[in-house]
UniProtKB/TrEMBL annotation:
Protein name as annotated: Thioredoxin domain-containing protein
Residue intervals of the Thioredoxin domain: 258-421
Coiled coil stretches, renumbered: none
Domain of life: Bacteria
PROSITE patterns named in the record: THIOREDOXIN_2 (PS51352)
Cited Pfam families: AhpC-TSA
UniProt cross-references to Gene3D superfamilies, sorted A to Z: Glutaredoxin (3.40.30.10)
């Protein structure tokens, strides 16, 4: 009996030791997942042979709670983080079909790439690395060189290219070595840029989710500047610029207009909810209608949506409708339902969203033949209660442009107030929704 008890105890002890060993081996076989360290970081993209710096901050100790924030001067853009395996992360650039994919190295640094997610464009990528705890952008603390000029002011830019390039203006602010600003064109702006002036050299960069942007150049003896603009995975252009307080871009209200003989716009495109969207639909009769030509790949279109969506939610019941007409990077309704659906969800869009086709300016002109030409994503077309086009605004002027954006907002509101106050035609069908009729 005693021998039997001893054998049973021995077997139990052996089993316990074996299980303990398995647990130890399992612990070694499955290491604890790594995650990005909380705090501020400095990253660098490699574009051709040059480096494009960017700054970001990570808050949250795991993917479930983390917020990844890109920093550009006073601008902040937030993104969610997903863990991949035990040592990598995936950061989708919100509504832009691109992502940062990175490995967390043993020393805690990041190495990876900015990757296009558009089907057929997946070869487009930019490698990057990032280091924790570094908050500078171009120049390490203590290594600044006294600037030889103050670049604060408005600059007229002349860009050199074999293809036609829109006129552009830079609005710059300098405080000591720190330089911030924006480049404006008739098709939109670069969003806020951040950089430095060192001696007779300057540099600005920006990364807000779409492909990164950089400007680098020299201050010439006569006070002018010369340099190169880099558009991430797209192209580089050389430029000269001179400070000129009175310079202005062409009037964005006079660039796109209806051809002679046209008063109205007409189209019919598939909505992302499966229904066809047309200005002849009953819901638009007798209403003021805002038609916004956009693309989810276009940062200025996103900025315009950030303005229009809450404006529409506030003013819809006054007799206003809106349509976002999206032209995407792939000519596929299914793909557009995904990309435009993400836009709708993130920015709480309660107006109709339709798919126009591939993001190509010539194609837009063909599909909207009443327009003299199509110049820019976004383009805003405002239609009165009679169905007549009253105004077309080319491009978008973001908040970083200061007075330019304020003027845009004032004129937009003034015009919409006037059109809303006009009586609806007696023949117009009255369709009053119980709630938003948008998608």
């Amino acid at each position: 009996m005693k021998t039997t008890n001893y054998l049973n105890k021995t077997r139990l002890l052996t089993a316990a030791l074996l299980l303990s060993g398995v647990s130890v081996l399992s612990a070694h076989a499955t290491p604890k997942p790594k995650f990005i360290k909380e705090g501020k970081w400095r990253g660098e993209f490699t574009v051709s042979e040059s480096k494009v710096p960017f700054n970001f901050e990570l808050k949250g100790k795991d993917a479930e709670h983390a917020v990844f924030t890109l920093i550009n001067g006073s601008r902040r853009d937030n993104f969610h983080v997903k863990s991949i395996g035990t040592d990598s992360v995936y950061i989708k650039m919100n509504t832009y079909d691109a992502a940062l994919v990175a490995k967390i190295e043993d020393d805690g640094s990041l190495s990876g790439e900015y990757r296009s997610l558009v089907p057929g464009f997946r070869g487009n990528s930019l490698p990057f690395t990032a280091e924790y705890g570094k908050t500078y952008r171009f120049v390490e603390p203590g290594k600044d060189v006294a600037p030889k000029a103050d670049l604060t002011g408005k600059w007229e830019i002349k860009t050199y290219s074999k293809e036609a390039v829109p006129a552009s203006i830079a609005l710059l602010k300098q405080k000591g070595n720190k330089l911030t600003g924006v480049v404006m064109t008739v098709v939109g702006d670069t969003r806020e840029l951040e950089g430095t002036v060192q001696g007779d050299e300057f540099a600005l960069s920006g990364f807000t989710g779409p492909s990164p942007f950089i400007i680098k150049g020299k201050i010439n003896a006569d006070g002018s500047i010369s340099g190169e603009e880099g558009f991430g995975i797209y192209k580089n252009l050389k430029f000269d610029a001179a400070k000129k307080a009175e310079v202005e871009l062409p009037d964005p209200y006079k660039l796109t207009f209806l051809k002679e003989g046209y008063k109205k716009l007409d189209f019919s495109f598939p909505g992302i909810d499966g229904k066809q969207v047309s200005l002849s639909d009953a819901k638009y009769k007798g209403k003021v209608v805002i038609v916004e030509i956009i693309g989810t790949w276009c940062p200025n279109c996103t900025d315009q949506t950030v303005f229009l969506s809450p404006w529409f939610n506030k003013n819809h019941q006054r007799g206003v409708e809106a349509i976002a007409l999206g032209f995407e990077q792939k000519d596929s309704l299914e793909y557009a339902k995904y990309t435009l659906g993400k836009l709708k969800e993130k920015y709480e869009i309660n107006y109709d969203i339709a798919f126009g086709g591939l993001a190509d300016k010539k194609l837009v002109s063909q599909k909207l033949p009443a327009l003299n030409k199509f110049i820019a994503f976004p383009t805003t077309i405002i239609i009165d209660r009679k169905g007549d086009v009253r105004e077309i605004y080319t491009g978008y002027t973001g908040t970083v442009t200061g007075k330019y954006h304020e003027d845009y907002e004032k004129k937009f509101n003034k015009l919409l107030d006037e059109l809303i106050a006009e009586p609806a035609p007696e023949t117009a069908a009255v369709v009053e929704p119980a709630a938003h009729q948008g998608n």
